[in-house]
Design brief:
Strand 10, helix 12 and strand 11 form a beta-alpha-beta unit. This protein has 20 helices and 14 strands. It starts with a strand and ends with a helix. It has two domains: 84-106 and 218-393, Rossmann fold (3-Layer(aba) Sandwich); 107-216 and 407-433, 3-Layer(aba) Sandwich (Rossmann fold). The longest helix has 15 residues, at 107-121. It is α/β, with parallel strands linked by helices.
Length: 434
């Protein structure tokens, strides 16, 4: 399989190049030349398969031409050392719980897969992974790559704009993980990463790659759990007229779901649930994409004002606004409605949503049509947002032992401005010391 750039001005790339480089030479995002539709027989029997069997079938379609089958299946099974169960919230609405991995967030799937695939492709050279995070990406990537030989990870995060528990998950690890606290917002962190890839001096001195969802090895494996969610719903006799809602920030997660649909996943439509950062929602309404600075919200992992993966969605649908609108609708919720939803759902059903999942639930509760069943992505454990959630529900949230372990560590971080020159000098200095 070859990969092309969404900007259309870079040479075609192999999977190895797309994974190792992360971003194409023309600053575009890599896309596979084709998306193979899975056979009807797969969907006829999917409810009889386990998670690994489902995911290996999907992985073969994405990566089977470029990675030996036994190695690929081993990577998939090592990645998915935990379940992503479907849980009933109320009549007609179910949660796809994606927080049962090591850092209790959906990004564990993509981060663990990428770490293993990158390790497979690494040819002895030292790789430097740059990742910008608005919350969960940093912890998932840091833990996915922790201790991987020959790989140094730099986590860039906005000062004061991630939860204390999220921060502990990537600042207390040490070893090959460096946390960089940037005086800005997530979009500034993401801009630094993208600019680093385009800087000739940096790229001459360091081998750089990204573990954000701009990397094909990060976002494509997220399709695994959409198929698994469907399999579980079909097993329960609830797969007809299925609507999937994805809380959306940088849009890698939704993009993976749309790829799954293109591969034949029988989902009726998708809903992109936004917080107050409503750039995509506004695009769906107007046909005009107008990035703007992000604003801080209770659902901080979705605080993105210029989502990178919009370029992939736009390309996937041939840059046609009408085609995008046929498969995707959108919602946007401010903090008051997010809090109201958390409180209401917990009070009525006993199910505790995190702030991002609350956006997904609410979009389904307001947007399902008669005869439709809704499945929303519950993207992180609510304990990761303990300081936000507890005052809303008026009772304590139990912290899982895995999170408690992170909180016992000693945070180590380097504070930097959002100036690219400062960031570049830091990377070059560190490289010179190693």
């Amino acid at each position: 399989m070859r990969y092309y750039s969404t900007n259309g001005k870079a040479p075609l790339a192999s999977l190895e190049k797309a994974v190792v480089k992360g971003l194409a030479e023309d600053r575009g995002l890599y896309m596979p030349e084709r998306i193979d539709r899975l056979p009807d027989t797969f969907f006829d029997s999917i409810q009889k398969m386990d998670f690994h069997e489902v995911a290996c079938t999907v992985a073969d379609a994405f990566f089977g031409e470029d990675v030996d089958r036994d190695i690929l299946h081993s990577i998939v099974c090592e990645t998915l050392a935990f379940d992503c169960p479907v849980v009933r919230v109320e009549e007609g609405i179910w949660a796809l719980e994606l927080f049962h991995g090591p850092t209790l967030a959906f990004k564990d799937v993509g981060a663990r897969f990428m770490a293993r695939l990158l390790g497979h492709f690494r040819s002895g050279e030292r790789l430097n992974v740059l990742v910008a995070t608005s919350g969960d990406t940093g912890s998932a990537v840091a833990n996915g790559f922790l201790g991987v030989e020959g790989i140094q990870v730099y986590v860039l995060y906005p000062k004061g704009k991630v939860s204390p528990i999220q921060e502990c998950q990537f600042t207390t690890l040490g070893r090959n993980i460096r946390a960089l606290e940037i005086d800005g917002v997530f979009d500034d962190c993401q801009a630094l990463v993208k600019q680093a890839f385009m800087d000739p001096e940096l790229n001459a001195a360091l081998t750089l790659t990204s573990a954000n969802s701009i990397n094909v090895a990060r976002f494509l494996p997220q399709a695994f759990y959409y198929f698994w969610g469907y399999a579980q719903m079909k097993r329960a006799g609830l797969a007809d007229n299925l609507v999937v809602c994805t809380p959306s920030g940088n849009f890698g997660n939704l993009c993976a779901g749309l790829f799954a649909k293109r591969m034949g996943l029988p989902v009726r439509r998708f809903i992109a649930a936004n917080n107050a950062n409503s750039v995509f929602y506004d695009y769906l309404r107007t046909g005009v994409y107008s990035p703007r600075p992000s604003v801080r919200t209770l659902a901080n992992a979705m605080d993105v004002g210029d989502p990178s993966n919009f370029a992939r969605i736009y390309d996937l649908y041939g840059k046609d606004w009408g085609s995008i609108r046929r498969d995707i609708s959108g919602t946007t919720y401010d903090d008051a409605r997010i809090a109201e939803t958390i409180r209401d759902v917990y009070g009525r059903t006993g199910y505790l949503c995190d702030p991002h999942g609350a956006c997904g639930y609410r979009a389904l509760s307001e947007g399902l049509l008669p005869g439709e069943t809704g499945l929303f992505c519950e993207t992180a454990h609510p304990a990761k947002f303990k300081d936000t959630v507890e005052p809303i529900i008026g009772s304590p949230v139990e912290i899982p032992s895995r999170l408690q372990d992170f909180m016992r560590g000693t945070p180590e971080k380097t504070s930097l401005s959002k100036d690219f020159g400062t960031f570049k000098d830091f990377l070059l200095k560190v490289a010179g010391e190693e």
